[in-house]
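can u do me a favor
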């Protein structure tokens, strides 16, 4: 996917997230992200993209940023205002300066998803954590999207749906170990709130009987550094050793 197509897909995602299906996904992801981030300790956290949810709402870290890749985006943010706009190919943060990065539906709509992950690995501290949200191609929604390539009526915005095993392979190449993974949103690819509500029972059944076929997933990974050994809990680091992660370059636009 080139840069122009990537931007169009992100804009299309903005509109899709306001649909009943989009609200369904946002509610599930917000709940899971709140549960995961509440127990991740550190000082500096960054959410990239999808300002319609506040991925860091439950995080206890003192310094949190919401960053976007579309400087002209006008949607209201669910959390704090966007403070940075930049290209994910080159993140304006110093190496090993962030404790947590969250990528909600960034990789499947990125022009260069591998480069995005490489940049995230660079800016994370040793034992820093990454959370990725993605659409699952091995789901009813994924099948509907695949059929839409032929019929021209896609259910989701145009993008490359990336399976969880593939994400795990990419992370492994970057020495990032997956610690937790979750699937959710088992209802069929319906467009109305009425029909999504009719299939609400599938969320309970899906978690029990077909847990790997949810429409969306979350992957949590930890940056591993060979030869490194932590002494004591990670959250006991002195604050002086973890300064605020400010943008490392002034060539990118920053908003107050």
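np, heres the sequence
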């Amino acid at each position: 996917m080139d840069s122009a197509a990537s931007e169009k897909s992100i804009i299309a995602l903005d509109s899709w997230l306001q649909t009943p299906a989009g609200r369904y996904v946002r509610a599930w992801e917000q709940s899971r992200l709140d549960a995961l981030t509440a127990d991740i300790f550190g000082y500096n956290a960054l959410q990239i993209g999808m300002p319609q949810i506040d991925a860091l709402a439950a995080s206890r870290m003192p310094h949190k940023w919401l960053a976007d890749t579309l400087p002209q985006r006008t949607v209201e943010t669910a959390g704090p205002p966007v403070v940075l706009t930049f290209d994910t190919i080159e993140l304006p943060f110093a190496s090993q300066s962030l404790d947590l990065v969250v990528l909600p539906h960034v990789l499947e709509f990125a022009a260069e998803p591998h480069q995005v992950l490489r940049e995230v690995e660079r800016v994370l501290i040793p034992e820093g954590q990454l959370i990725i949200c993605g659409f699952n191609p091995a789901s009813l929604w994924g099948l509907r999207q695949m059929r839409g390539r032929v019929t021209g009526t896609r259910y989701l915005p145009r993008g490359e749906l990336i399976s969880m095993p593939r994400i795990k392979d990419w992370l492994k190449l970057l020495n990032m170990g997956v610690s937790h993974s979750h699937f959710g949103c088992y209802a069929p690819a319906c467009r109305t709130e009425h029909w999504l509500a009719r299939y609400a029972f599938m969320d309970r059944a899906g978690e029990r009987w077909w847990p790997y076929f949810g429409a969306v997933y979350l992957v949590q990974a930890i940056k591993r550094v060979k030869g490194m050994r932590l002494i004591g809990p990670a959250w006991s680091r002195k604050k002086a050793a973890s300064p605020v992660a400010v943008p490392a370059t002034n060539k990118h636009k920053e908003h107050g």
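Confidence is low (pLDDT under 50) at residues 234-242, 249-256. hope that helps!!
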